[in-house]
Model the fold of this input.
Amino acid sequence: MKSVQFFALILSILCLPVLADTVTSPLSIEVIRSSPELYDGKNIKVSGQVRSLNPSRGKRGSEFMVLVLENSNFQPGDSSQTLTVFSYFTPPLKKGGRVIVTGVYHKTGYWAGSTHDHFIEASKITPIEMN
Done:
């Protein structure tokens, strides 16, 4: 019995940092871009509007989707209100639709053979139904 309790204690201690690195409610693009160092390398949720959807292929042939998300108050030419999302899956999305993206944010990083700034490696993309 004591070994089960000890195992449960060790498991909870090991899982705590993972849970602490996860933001549970969606953030705005503006919040992330205003303090990127706070979110760099962390699992986050962000909400935004799909500005563009582009299928792409990496240097070694892997296929992926590139989405550009923007804030609802986006002003043309203001790249500080956008985030790029890289995804190995393609949920049913359309340009102009609102989504919540869950994934790891990178202020600067390497994806598909190139260096990119302000992007998310998506683990989940959920369309938001607008009534």
